[in-house]
Automatic annotation (TrEMBL), chains A, B:
Pfam families: TetR_N (PF00440)
DNA-binding region location: 36-55
InterPro entries linked: Homeodomain-like_sf (IPR009057), HTH-type_TetR-like_transc_reg (IPR050109), HTH_TetR (IPR001647)
Ranges for domain HTH tetR-type: 13-73
Name this polypeptide is given: TetR/AcrR family transcriptional regulator
Superkingdom of the organism of origin: Bacteria
Organism field: Streptomyces rameus
Keyword set includes S-adenosyl-L-methionine: no
Keywords, alphabetical: DNA-binding, Transcription, Transcription regulation
Length: 200, 200
DNA sequence: ACCGTAACACTAACGGTTATGGTTTAGAAA
DNA sequence: TTTCTAAACCATAACCGTTAGTGTTACGGT
């Protein structure tokens, strides 16, 4: 971004982009299962091996852009205003992400994803990776450090909020509803309740 | 179980069992990736197509037994003692399941699973199916009915508790820790807090 | 004894993915 | 400039999970 990238890197990026664009277009035109890797490669005018040197799998072609999902989440934790509480910051970010992927323009894409078991599976394990990153970011947050177990649980809950809300009738209301629960869980987890304190 | 099954069904069950046993043995001996479907079929002395008429995929060979996981969870909800609160019943069941799969005898199997991305992916989406069943069971529970969103969220949290605790150093303590959070989340979700009540 | 069909077999293919080995070309070094 | 290196790309063929197509056997009911 700072230094002018050489021709080589520009060409590489262009190739990658062309593959991604072609793939998405074909998938939406003919359906994910009806388009083969060889079709995509031919239409993008590259070799199959080249395609796989840019994307790890067929599914990765669809989620090309969702790698910054991870970054936005961790950023919401590490880059929030000083003294802003954790959970509301995460809630705002999840709201934004949900709004983004439930927008009308994204509808055909997500309909396609929901229709393909392979794509659903891929997304699920992608989200779990995101949850792990988020857990790390939460654990590194200054102030009272809860257990890593608590951090990992909260991170999972946040990801759950996203993927559940995405498929609800009123996504934003669902995010609010689930985050009220997460807030309560966080309070309990943060204070380490039960560890020889309120032994019930 | 009640009537004596005919020879046909016995033979079918025997074939299925032989396939499953052979597969698991080969997988543990040589590693999941190093064993092909054709190897398993040959060793079990069946055709490849026969193997796939018994198991939907290679991964399903490994999780053959885990189909009752789903049943045990929903049973823990629908079949619990009258007036026993929901969350503790679920906690007990998850404890049992975690204990079961962290037992020493199961260690090699789970090490294999954790080492294979394909198997992890398969397990993850299996768990999500389980979560949906659990959510349905919770929603059908008599008494005060929370939103379906709340039920689905709690179901996910419970599944999260299982899969997180499974890979912690002290699984049973982790289950307790996470369930304290789930309990709090459930209380908040159940009472519908925030819906024009405690608007904050 | 006969028939319908469930279980199984064999072959060949399909589609995602990878290994192999070769060609071009950007960009640094001489 | 010329030369060299390595990155990007290409073409081919194979591997492996999975499925379709097409029988063949033998169980269980009539």
């Amino acid at each position: 971004m700072t230094v002018p990238p050489g021709r080589r890197e520009r060409k590489k990026a262009a190739t990658r982009q062309k593959i991604a664009d072609t793939a998405l277009r074909l998938f939406l035109e003919r359906g994910y299962d009806a388009v083969g890797i060889r079709d995509v490669a031919a239409e993008a005018d590259v070799a199959v091996t080249t395609l796989f040197s840019h994307f790890a799998s067929k599914e990765a072609l669809v989620f090309e852009l969702d790698e910054d999902f991870e970054q936005r989440l961790t950023q919401a934790v590490t880059g929030r205003a000083p003294h802003e509480p954790l959970i509301p910051a995460l809630r705002r970010e999840i709201q934004a992400l949900v709004r983004h992927c439930t927008a009308d323009s994204a509808a055909p894409l997500w309909r396609m994803i929901d229709a393909s078991p392979a794509l659903r599976k891929y997304e699920e394990s992608m989200r779990l990776r995101h949850a792990e990153s988020l857990a790390t970011a939460i654990a590194a947050d200054p102030g009272p450090s809860p257990t890593t177990t608590v951090c990992r649980a909260i991170a999972r809950f946040v990801i759950d909020a996203y993927s559940l809300a995405r498929e609800e009738a009123e996504p934003e209301a669902a995010v609010d509803e689930i985050f009220r629960m997460i807030e309560a869980a966080w309070e309990v987890g943060r204070s380490g309740a039960g560890r020889a304190v309120t032994g019930r």
